[in-house]
């Protein structure tokens, strides 16, 4: 009987280890976040902490940032769109990417450059992935990724941002995160 307990304990430990390794996918340990109210979910790294945005009236629903690299962050912004609109009705990935880029440069000193605009479909839901290099005042550079989706009259924008100098170290991680976003 005692031997069965040890076998079960070892089997459980092996399952936990294999699940952890499979979830990491070579990009570090990720954990899930799910918002039941708005029906979205994503993965984010251990060591990232939530930022209070409860008083935000800008459509920002959630923000996380890296505990060590303060400049690395993610956010989810939710906006209204007509209930009968699908993501494709807003334009191609490139059209939407340029529209976001134009809005970002009009409302701030940020000068974004669209690097990539792609479409993917997951379980019948269309997502656009947008990648930007952003020049800030004083010449500082950032690298941003976003996933955009439309569902039930809401436009969901999942954003990730880091310093351009950090991009080579976090590219694989950020791509895993941006592809994990689901509505």
Provide keyphrases for this structure.
single chain, 183 residues, alpha+beta, 7-stranded antiparallel β-sheet, two-stranded antiparallel sheet, 3 helices, globular, disordered N terminus
SSE diagram, text form:
Elements: H1 2-24, E1 30-35, E2 40-45, E3 48-51, E4 60-66, E5 73-80, H2 93-106, E6 111-122, E7 125-135, E8 141-151, E9 154-163, H3 167-180
Describe this protein's structure.
Strand 8 and strand 9 (154-163) form a beta hairpin. The protein is α+β, with helices and mostly antiparallel strands and 183 residues long. The N and C termini lie far apart (47 Å). The strands form two sheets. Strands 3-4-5-9-8-7-6 form a seven-stranded antiparallel sheet, with helices on both faces. It is built from three helices and nine strands, in the order H-E-E-E-E-E-H-E-E-E-E-H. Residues 2-26 have low confidence and may be disordered.
Number of strands: 9
Task: Tell me the number of helical segments per DSSP (H or I, 4 or more residues long).
Answer: 3
Q: Helix/strand/pairing class, anyone?
A: alpha+beta
Overall residue-averaged pLDDT value: 86
Strand content range: 35-45%
Shape: globular
Percent of residues in helices: 25-40%
Please summarize what this structure is.
The protein is an alpha+beta fold and 183 residues long. The chain has helices spanning 2-24, 93-106, 167-180, and strands spanning 30-35, 40-45, 48-51, 60-66, 73-80, 111-122, 125-135, 141-151, 154-163.
